[in-house]
Amino acid sequence: MRVLVTGGTRGIGLACCRLFFRMGYEVTALYSSDEAAAEAARRELPEVRFLRADVADEAAVKRVFSELPPLDVLVNNAGIDFFAQVQDMAYSDYARVMDVNMGGTFLVTKYAVPGMLSRGGAIVNVSSIWGVTGGSCESVYSASKGAVIAFTKALAQELAPAVRVNAVAPGAIDTVMNAGYSAQERQEIERRIPLGRFGTPDECAQAVYFLATCRYCTGQVLGVDGGGL
After folding, report:
1. Confidence band of 207 (pLDDT split at 50, 70, 90)
2. Model pTM?
């Protein structure tokens, strides 16, 4: 069984690599530029193949798939954030967030699907709670993750029954993306979470693995958010 995880060198992506490898999968992971994180990931998981490729670059994605055998599971996890009020964002900021979060999901899926159709398989897209509810000062990030959810639901109908397509919508998770909160901000967020704490990347990976292996789930969005924010 083969799985490709995008954004696989840290956070939720690295946790997915760990879990799928532990469950017996042949794991390949993509990363865009952080060589230090990639080297640390290689030391931790020497059996996993880590490849550098920007998911928003079609030529790079096409090159990756020219070298990969067909997949059984695709985890579209790569994503970036941008925290600002909308009037303070340049169009280039908007374009980059959309290109990576939605465009990257589209491109990797486009090149993965032909090899999956004849053998069956599963795609799990990593969205966000903000893709469901919207987040203040993260309007474009929220829009990109909402687009991932719409793409998931439409693709689940398009590819059924051969390929199942689902998404997870993480809430506040202990990752580098959320490391910038002050102690006070973190406490305020935790007060709003019914389970009273940030989630872990491993808990998100468990949800991803469930959707990848549950053969009667498609078109679903599973919140991994401690009960909401």
Report:
1. very high
2. 0.95
